[in-house]
Design brief:
- The complex is a heterodimer of chains A (298) and B (172).
- With 298 residues, chain A is α/β, with parallel strands linked by helices.
- Helix content of chain A is 30%, strand content 30%.
- Chain A has nine helices and 14 strands.
- Chain A is globular and about 60 Å long.
- Chain B has 172 residues and is an all-alpha fold.
- Helix content of chain B is 83%, strand content 0%.
- Chain B has six helices and no strands.
- The termini of chain B are close together.
- The chains are: A alpha/beta (298), B mainly alpha (172).
- Chains A and B meet through helix 3 and helix 4 of A and helix 2 and helix 6 of B.
Amino acid sequence: MNNCKHMILQQLPAVYRRLLEPVSFLELEEIRFRIDRPVLLYGRGGYTFLSASGGITDSPSAACTPGRTDMDALASALCTSSVYAFLNDIKEGFLTLRGGHRVGIAGKCVTKDGAVTNITSVSGINIRIAKAYPGCAAELSAQLRTDKYVKNTLLISPPQCGKTTFLRDLTRILSAEFKITVVDERSEIGGSYEGRPQFDLGLQADVLDRFPKAPGILLALRSLSPQIIVTDELGTEADCEALQSASCSGCRLIASIHGDSVRGIAHTKGRLLSFFDTAVILGRRNNRPAVLQIQNLE
Amino acid sequence: MIKLTGALLVIGTCLAFALKLIGRQRETISALRELDTLLKALAQNISLHLEPLPLLIRRLAAEKAASAPEFLTRLTPLLDEDSCQPISPLWQEAFSAFADEKHLPDKARSLMNALGEHLGQADAATEAERLHSTAAEIQALYKELEQNRIKAEKATGSLGVLLGLFIVILLL
């Protein structure tokens, strides 16, 4: 965790490095910077403020409150003064830091021909601290096994309930036995930085970093001969087409989707469910991601 | 005889001064050429690899090793791996020291400082365009200096001949 803290701090401007130095990152899940609002530190199901003199405080008036210049400096630092290198991500509203930590960005949208080309006048930055809990999916992986294979599995949960954490650990565990390709559209599962996954994904996992899901899945099928394809946050029609190809090829699928129940997914994206044998509903128990329910879809 | 010796000394001093200036000009031109090549390399790498600037600068410095442009070798140590200072002031700091040492003209300074001020703040196409256009201006600058140098060398040559004649006369 010290390493995780060090890695995050060294990507922040000096002022925030100094203020966050006394803060424990053990239970910290998010650091939220909003323009002209106190910096919030989320963890243990609640939040505290980042004190203007360093460390945490319960008083918003004693909290550090970033202004326009601070937000610009923070955004620039997170991009390592190289906006062009992160622009494709910025268009999607996020950045991935070294260590696989996800930074969400809020601000003014610049569009061209209806497409987002940039986000300027950054007004909010949310650093989501990526954590690996090796072994958290051990029980689940055993339940997903059949004699020879692994069930096609869809992990369903609202944000912040551990979809990515479980996908990551399932990959790590299953790659001891199966060839796995991770189509990591947002660099969240592997947390790749400069082509190097920052999380342990096991022995036989290939990572297609920043590949859009549909072309990534098709490329994996053509060239990487995976036994299992792992991907996250399914949703589009193109994803369905790619899943169909994967499913026809005999390759197993493990994926995640935002939602809170199978019924909800069936209502909005019913076709997706036809590619999976099992749905795993994730949620939080004791403020930690946990498997709430495993539902057979066959 | 005294007048002739005096003239000889004056011409000799002028010649030494001119040679020193030409040497300095050569150094300036070579530094500008280096900058031109570096800016083009940065533009090409940004377009092709979308590599963040600190990594790109470190990589270029490491790849070129002993033959790395001096400006890069000045800039690289300022890019502390454990911190994330904005690149613009570091660029300007490194360039200021480099420009002083190489006696770069004011125009080159203002071009490079203006480039450094906005470096890394736009998309790859704009960055590459800015780098190329600065490189083109730097190129025009060193070509102009090159012509001046050739003229100065010719003048120095004439001065050398004159000095030679004076010496011959003096010896006769």
